[in-house]
Amino acid sequence: MAEGSGVNKPSSSSTNISRELDVMPLAVVTRIMKSVLPKDVRIRDGAKKSVQQLVTEFILYVTAHASKKCVDESRQKITGEDLIGAMKALKFDDYIEPLTLHLKKYRESGK
């Protein structure tokens, strides 16, 4: 940007803080990982952090696809159907039925 354009480039420290806020909490990732492993299995910190980054990127990727559809349709809110549609478009077909059932149960529960 040219000098005096009125647009401020974020400093590297504010970018780092923003990026940290975009990452799924490590405690949540660890809890999910432990829930599917035998009790005696330990997970190295590097593995936890790798999965944390992977999960975060996956969520951002699917959300970006759902968001594009909303923008194209001049809508401001992403719905569960938008996310499921993004998963279909991205060929994550094995997840469509379970996600659809989960969304239905969630809505029926009134939450």
Automatic annotation (TrEMBL):
Keywords: Transcription, Transcription regulation
SUPFAM superfamilies linked: Histone-fold (SSF47113)
Molecular function terms from GO: DNA-binding transcription activator activity, RNA polymerase II-specific; protein heterodimerization activity; RNA polymerase II cis-regulatory region sequence-specific DNA binding
Ranges of residues in domain Transcription factor CBF/NF-Y/archaeal histone: 24-87
This protein's record includes keyword Transcription regulation: yes
Pfam family, one: CBFD_NFYB_HMF
InterPro entries reported in the protein's UniProt record: CBFA_NFYB_domain, Histone-fold, Transc_fact_NFYB/HAP3
Any single GO CC term annotated in Swiss-Prot or TrEMBL for this entry: CCAAT-binding factor complex
UniProt record similarity statement: Belongs to the NFYB/HAP3 subunit family.
Listed name of the protein: Nuclear transcription factor Y subunit B-6-like
Species of the source: Olea europaea subsp. europaea
